[in-house]
């Protein structure tokens, strides 16, 4: 063991070193894990041991505060959050935060913080996400959307159409079943671009770094559809997209086949009305559509047709760039190109 590195871990209470060594304090006769929250000991009194057994063989007893011979407090909390996830997954009706906390043995506020830290979601959001996953799994095999909804734990189908979803439940049920998609991929100023189309128009325009990534994203959205690469057949459409990227004033003007909920379609139609070289704030669109900025942001994030449905032209309340499905650097570059073309047009 590197004594200097071990001491640094003790000073930083670095939980990443828990289980890799313990340290003992000669003046107290106890040994601790590196993340022990107790007051830092004098370096001259500290020794390092490979494991609790070695520390006890040297005559030291375990710290009652950090319990170095068992699971760490962090590991114990990890286990409790995992148990909470299992309870949420198994429950037909998701329990309230108070009910869940009582089952787990933590206070509601402690459980909420620990759950959000480890999963990135609140318990309620976790339960809803899992219910949506069950719905997605049930839809292809169910006789109807209602049957799938009941199987997933919904009381009916109303909530499915009220929520923000990338596709309607009926379309999700089929996952593109019966549709034939053609797609083409080409290099572009933003990396690579994939254009996919049905007989009705462009259904996806995706940006990425490599072809495998783009094809995987297309497959996830249209897993049951027949997908055929057709670089030659879509060459003209793809060329018009590349022209718009290079010369933003030259819009591609392609027909669109947008797959989304009624609310998402309203948002996407509003996006197509934002002129090149201009931006709108989420709040402005929310006021226009009598909605909430967060709902607008979710609809923008679910847009699968980049550039042609210009969600990159929506910015934060303070004018900051905000997020972008295909990466903020691409959004910044699109806005830069459109802004430069707009200024050139005014000068001309």
From TrEMBL:
The keyword Transcription regulation applies. Residues 96-155 form the HTH araC/xylS-type domain. Gene3D superfamilies: DNA Methylphosphotriester Repair Domain (3.40.10.10), Homeodomain-like (1.10.10.60), Methylated DNA-protein cysteine methyltransferase domain (3.30.160.70), Winged helix-like DNA-binding domain superfamily/Winged helix DNA-binding domain (1.10.10.10). It catalyses: a 6-O-methyl-2'-deoxyguanosine in DNA + L-cysteinyl-[protein] = S-methyl-L-cysteinyl-[protein] + a 2'-deoxyguanosine in DNA; a 4-O-methyl-thymidine in DNA + L-cysteinyl-[protein] = a thymidine in DNA + S-methyl-L-cysteinyl-[protein]. GO terms for biological process: methylation. Keywords: Activator, DNA damage, DNA repair, DNA-binding, Methyltransferase, Transcription, Transcription regulation, Transferase. GO terms for molecular function: DNA binding; methyltransferase activity. Its cofactor is Zn(2+). InterPro entries: Ada-like_dom_sf, Ada_DNA_repair_Zn-bd, Bifunct_regulatory_prot_Ada, Homeodomain-like_sf, HTH_AraC, MethylDNA_cys_MeTrfase_AS, MethylDNA_cys_MeTrfase_DNA-bd, MethylDNA_cys_MeTrfase_DNAb. This is Bifunctional DNA-binding transcriptional regulator/O6-methylguanine-DNA methyltransferase Ada. The lineage of its organism: Bacteria, Pseudomonadati, Pseudomonadota, Gammaproteobacteria, Pseudomonadales.
